[in-house]
Amino acid sequence: MDEKSISENIKRLRIRKKMTLQDLAAGTGLTKGYLSKVERSQKAPPYSTLTRISAGLGVKITALLAGDNPPRDVRLFLSPGEKREIIRETDQFAGCDYEILAGGKAGKNMEPFIIHAPWEITRTYSHEGEENIFVMEGQLEFHYGDDVMILNPGDNAYFDAVVPHAGRSLGHQKAKLFVVIYFYKRTH
Predict the structure, then answer these.
(1) Where are the domains of the chain?
(2) SS3 state at 188
(3) DSSP states of 7-31 as a string?
(4) Are 52 and 30 within 8 A, CB to CB?
(5) Cα separation, 154 vs 157, whole angstroms
(6) Number of H helices, E strands in the chain
């Protein structure tokens, strides 16, 4: 999935919900002009902003990241490795490569990903909910608020995601992380 597809999904969902850009701006705390640039692929929002947009639209973030396959309402969702959707780091979406693990599962409060951490920190993230990071491979320099720690394979960090956080790979191998983000149930 590329940034153009994400932008198109945002606009499609906003129109489907009969929302104006001003309505979405009021629901996200973002400006109408910024959202217009996002929808026209002129501004690439970081993951934390995508969570605000998804909340404003009343959808899970995977609805913005998903391709043309709508989520299915199933109790069990299997994600074969060879069919996983990967969102690659680009100049506009600087940061991480994401493997979406449950994009087609409807009605979930958790978003599981495999993330390949970048070599440099280009932005910090802050969003609603809680997050769990498990280091599968490589070494991660993890920044949480004012703290900096080194995580190695097998290490785990569980934290309140509203605190600014970021990470970068250390050594010769990119850190591969299993990340689960839990979003509190929304009432809107």
Answers:
(1) 3-65, 81-182
(2) coil
(3) HHHHHHHHHHTT--HHHHHHHHT--
(4) yes
(5) 10
(6) 5, 9
Q: Tell me, which fold does domain 3-65 have in CATH?
A: 434 Repressor (Amino-terminal Domain) (1.10.260)
Structure tokens at 123: 């932005």
Task: Please state the φ and ψ torsions of residue 16, each to the nearest 5 degrees.
Answer: -60, -35
Residue 140 scores a pLDDT above 60? yes
Token pair of 28 as six digits: 């996200």
- For domain 81-182, the CATH class is mainly beta
One-letter amino acid for residue 187 of the chain: T
The token pair at 21 is: 């850009």
Alpha-carbon distance 96 to 184, whole Å?
24
| pTM of full prediction above 0.85 | no
Residue 154 corresponds to which amino acid? Answer: G
Residue the block writes with tokens 């074969």: 80
CB 101 within 8 Å of CB 62: no
CA distance between the termini of the chain: 28
pLDDT, tens digit (0-9, with 9 covering 90-100), for 67-106: 555 555 555 555 566 555 666 655 444 567 778 787 767 6
Q: What would the two tokens of residue 24 be?
A: 């979405």
Fold equal for 3-65 and 81-182? no
Torsional class of 49: left (φ above 0), alpha (ψ -120 to 50), beta (otherwise): alpha
